[in-house]
Amino acid sequence: MNFIWAFLIAGLFCALGQIILDNTKLTPGHVTSIFTVLGSILAFFGVYEKLIDLAGAGATTIIANFGYMLYIGALEGFEDMGVLGIFAGMLTNSSVAIVGSIVIASFMTLIFKPKD
Q1: 116 in a domain, yes or no?
Q2: Can you state the angle between helices 28-44 and 47-55, rounded to 10 degrees?
Q3: Sequence-ordered list of residues with C-beta below 8 angstroms from that of 38, at least 6 positions apart, any chain
Q4: Of 66, 86, 89, 103, which residue is most buried, by most CB within 10 angstroms?
C-alpha cells in the first residue's frame, strides 16, 4: 500500500507541475521555486509531515521536500540559537541535498557533452 500512496502523491505533484508548465508561460525554474515555497508552506501548516508519513519516498524525493527541509532546519536553528540560528539551521538540514546535487551535476558534466 505504501507504494501506491508514494506513486499517487509524487504523481500528483508532477501532474500539477506539468499543468502549470503547459498552461502558463512559467519556466521550469519558476515551477521549481513554486514547489519549494509550497513545501515550506505545507510544512508550516503541518501537512507535509503527514504526507511523508503517508507516502514516504513519494513525498521525500520531490522538490517540495527541499522547502520542507529548509523550513524544519530554520525552525530548529531558531529554537537552538535564536535569529541567527535560522540561517545555520537551514544550511545544516539541507546541506546534504545541496552537496549531493553539486557532486552529481559535476559528474554528469564529465560524462555528457552539452548541446550548443
Answers
A1: no
A2: 100
A3: 64, 67
A4: 89
